[in-house]
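Data's thin. Show one?
=====
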Amino acid sequence: MKTFSRAAKYYLIAITIASYMLADEPNKGGKVITYSDLVSEKVVVTGMFDVPLGKVFNVEGTLVRARDTLGAMYNSAFLLSIDVVDGRKLEQPKRIFFSVKDVGAKLPEGLVELESWKKEELKRSLTDDERKELIAQYVGRRYKLSVVENGHFAGLPKDLPRNCVLWAEEQYRFDTALVVIAGGPM
């Protein structure tokens, strides 16, 4: 029998709870997925790339600035623009947030991390010209990576009580991100 880590169990519980919260009327033609369905592997959840969440796969793509797609609120973040999945060219590239677990990947998650790498080397802050040059060295660069896609729910559920503190600005939704576990620049 397969066992799940504590994080996986919490993730599965969150999916189950969220499936009820997302539905306006729980049994109005939609399928209710229970926690026991998920842990017994009766249901397989696939991500943005049609690969089951939690399965390792290979991608090729380009590092891009998140602000170019998502606006100024994401000024310091990077995305991966994926155009090849397990050797298969996608019709359209898909952009996705990511985190890096392989320090050898030479892939910064955002501007803060990228600038800190250079500051360590220089032992001082970067000038504006140095910052622009550094960004140009990474943004647009192609990577070949082994990744895992994870999912989570985030945002504000429908029908919150009026006196509830708002902790997000976006509607409740399911979202995914990649975890880079190996690879590097092409």
Observations:
- Confidence is low (pLDDT under 50) at residues 7-14, 16-27.
- The chain is about 25% helix and 30% strand.
